[in-house]
Amino acid sequence: MWNRKLRLEKWDWEKKYWKPADVAIHNRPDDCWVSFNGIVMDLTPLVTEYRNRPEVLPLLAEAGKDISLWFDKNGNLRTFTHPILGTKVPYLPHGPIPHLYDYNLPTTQWKPAPLNSWWRDPKYVIGKLTKSARPVRIFNNLTKMEITLTVCAEETIDQILERYLPYNERARSYTWKYEGNVLDMDLTLEQNGIKDRKADLRRLGLPEDLYIPAL
To answer: What is one cellular component GO term in this UniProt entry (predicted)?
Structure first.
């Protein structure tokens, strides 16, 4: 499992990308991630704070999933015009959530969502959701061992190396190459001239895994 503290020390969250599959495995009360509008949040502290309270149930039901349908393109909760209040209130068909409880009911206590609501709080953000995941083979010329990883298209070679470290703790001591050319570790696969051919293969009616580049 990725160590959050070490990860955030190494990369600013704006440079860290996650695959939907990375998010999906964090689907428990003690390990709860969600994604929405292209960002990924670790809501484990929030879930712990609200444990045994009904507001946490919608989050637990969606743990490890994308909840973009809850929000508009600006990252605000979707709203509707309340038939009695005649004003816009958060749309909560899934039930109350942390920082918003029974906001669909007419009440003199109604007020806007707090500015520090969890979906606006950067302390929960741990990165961005990749726009495209792609496979890459990593071949070790010394041991002749090969492994295929699915990585984020936005990740640099150095970040791909981080994904590979659990399989080879000496990976940092190696020279990383593609077709004999030394790779720039601060650039992505695409920026290093390694094209993603999935779309070309689909257009030709061929399996996407017919060609996987090897580093």
So the answer is: axoneme
